[in-house]
Amino acid sequence: MNYYNLVKIDNVLLQVIRDFNPQYFVTDGSNQMNQKLIGLWVEYLGGDRVVKQNNRILICRTIEDAIIEQ
Known about the structure:
By secondary structure, the protein is of the alpha+beta class. It is built from one helix and four strands.
């Protein structure tokens, strides 16, 4: 049995690959997240979308709509 953590954002269904504490991405002592580091994680995990929800950073993969062939 497969367990998927799914979220719906703007009417798009996303599979959560991994979630992080936002502080993980603050690297230079400022209060801003390092966008390049986030991008590297997205590429490494094979995601295509990043969402901030409930004080967590979610790296997600978009779930495509099914196409029915006749």
